Amino acid sequence: MATHRPVSLIGVPTDVGAGHRGARLGPEALRIAGLPEALAARGVAVRDVGNLQGPRNPWTGPVDGYRHLDEVVAWNHALMEATLVELRDGRLPIMLGGDHCLGIGSITAVARWCREQGKQLRVLWLDAHSDFNTSEVTPSGNIHGMPVACLCGLGPEALTRLGGDAPAISPQQVRQIGIRSVDQDEKRLIKQHQVDVYDMRYIDESGMKRAMEAALEGVDANTHLHVSFDVDFLDPSIAPGVGTTVPGGVNYREAQLVMEMIADTGLMGSLDIVELNPLLDRRNRTAKLAVDLVESLFGKSTLMRD
Question: Which residues are noted in the entry as Mn(2+) 1-binding (predicted)?
Fold first, then answer.
């Protein structure tokens, strides 16, 4: 069995960037579904640092195109600082979300750490949505639809410069897998910035194995893989506990293959698990499936493989 870096679980209980209430309950649902115990059973040393604290969700409308910007900044700044602490301590941070706006804080921290270490960064964005919106193209103003754009320098300065550097990453460092819901203007931005997207049509035509081989092409021993796993990546028939369900998603076996191929690289250095909404789930089914898939990220497979 592969030896794993010790892991730190960071709970971020907020739905401040989302359009539905409930993602703030995600961290506890993942714990109740047995995530710490599942990792420990795989020989991983697990430290649960508990939940970060931040402002309550005011549940107000957009101001200048953004909903809850001050609160989103506060939560992401706290997460960025907490993630950096764990990375610098030689640990693998797992962010238990919370909505996907939190990817700004976690990936800003990872990008900074990679620059400090002289490492390459590759972000695998597992999601039904590209999250490349800006305030100009989204009527809702929900920031959980904007994190990739913010990380690439498009968005309010409070988020694009969260870590002092802008942009935190370039679009060329991102590979998006499982995408099947993109707003019209967002499509233009993705094309303009040349984001590498393996949407469900590509996966249907070429297969998940080919998609993952392409997404992992060029990674080497000096690459830090950051996996940002939005549970709406999965088809809602197997993962109902999300606020933004999109039919036609990744099935169970495809999802396992994704996780197993990432595990095979041995390069995953950080992980987000986001958008789990227990209020919309059935008997914590989606959280249990997420735990099952994370086990595969840490090397669980049907057979012993070289």
Answer: 100, 127, 129, 131, 230
